[in-house]
Amino acid sequence: MEMPMMRRSxxxxxxxxxxxxxxxxxxxxxxxxxxxxxxxxxKGDGKTDSTEAFLSAWAKACESVNPAVIYVPAGRFFLKNMxxxxxxxxxxxxxxxxxTLVAPSDYQVIGNAGNWISFQYVNGVTIxxxxxxxxxxxxxxCKNSGKSCPSGATTLAFSNSNNIKIVGVTSLNSxxxxxxxxxxxxxxxxxxxxxxxGNSPNTDGIHVQLSTGVTILNSKIGTGxxxxxxxxxxxxxxxxxxxxxxxxxxSIGSLGKDLNExxxxxxxxxxxxxxxxxxxxRIKSWGRPSSGFARNILFQHAVMVNVQNPIVxxxxxxxxxxGCPGQVSGVKVSDVTYKDIHGTSATxxxxxxxxxxxxxxxxISLQDVKLTYKNEPALASCSHAAGTALGMVQPxxxx
Length: 399
Known about the structure:
Elements: H1 5-31, E1 33-36, E2 45-49, H2 51-63, E3 68-72, E4 76-78, E5 82-85, E6 93-97, E7 100-102, H3 107-110, E8 115-120, E9 125-128, E10 131-133, H4 137-144, E11 154-159, E12 162-167, E13 170-172, E14 179-182, E15 185-190, E16 193-195, E17 206-209, E18 212-222, E19 228-230, E20 235-244, E21 250-255, E22 264-275, E23 279-286, E24 293-307, E25 309-317, E26 332-345, E27 349-354, E28 361-373, E29 376-377, E30 379-383, E31 385-394
Parallel strand pairs: 1-3, 2-4, 3-6, 4-7, 5-8, 6-9, 7-10, 8-11, 9-12, 10-13, 11-14, 12-15, 13-16, 14-17, 15-18, 16-18, 17-19, 18-20, 19-21, 20-22, 21-23, 22-24, 23-25, 24-26, 25-27, 26-28, 27-30, 28-31
Antiparallel strand pairs: 28-29
């Protein structure tokens, strides 16, 4: 008996759909090339040098026309300094790390390399999971003893790269900076953990400079320097839901070290907690001539717990009184808003605006600020700063 025409048409259409779906899923299954570093000679025993296996995995992933995954299984993988360079034949390479990457414990091995793990001129790279163990404690001890030591290596650096994701990564005991974003566009850091001693020198958690469209979300940073440091040429930076401590706070600067310098603008810091830090929300610039600036900055929803300098603008930064005594900062600070900032100060002066004599801070806004010192209202100090106070502001505004 012949099948009715309509029923036959429906079955043909269904057959085409099923075939399309099967072909699609089959294509998807072969679309990603995966490279396991162990298959390429890496050993997760914590002592065998696996550097070449990682570089080999990168070379294969970079040559692949399909999206690629470099898989690092559980284990401790000993690695010397590595540079992963583009341009690649695809724009979707993921390092999926289930294990721990371990730097040499002898800081002389990579201490002068600049970076331990470096990516440059790449597009569409994701680092997912894993622990990056910089083994920096011996170098910190050397520096804290006053001896002559290497400057140390940054654990993870991206430079001149676009469309980067760093997700669920833990940076442990970096020799110097933990994560650096330099000259990049469209970078997302999410669920990052930074762990280092409060007395580890020059170990900024996340440093951003000369970059546009960087987002830092849901991260916990404890280190011996700035939790997040924001350098010249940073535009459109969004920081949200970050816990900082120990550390030196979230700092814009130091700015104005160079005479001709790119400015910082459009920075938002939202929902941040600072515990026992040296600073909370800080802007600092060298006390010397510069074309730099910091403008359109919003600090909102911050909680301070026993913070030495909860709100501070310091335009007379001059470490060791070298290269700047007697000069004034050329950096122009303007349009900075502090909104819903609450908590406790570890010092009597909780709000300090120490601005440039030549370029006073302008359009500073305090809105709903309540900072106390030993259960009493704290003090505010202003020098060459102008702006407004709205709503309840404690300590009483000096603007």
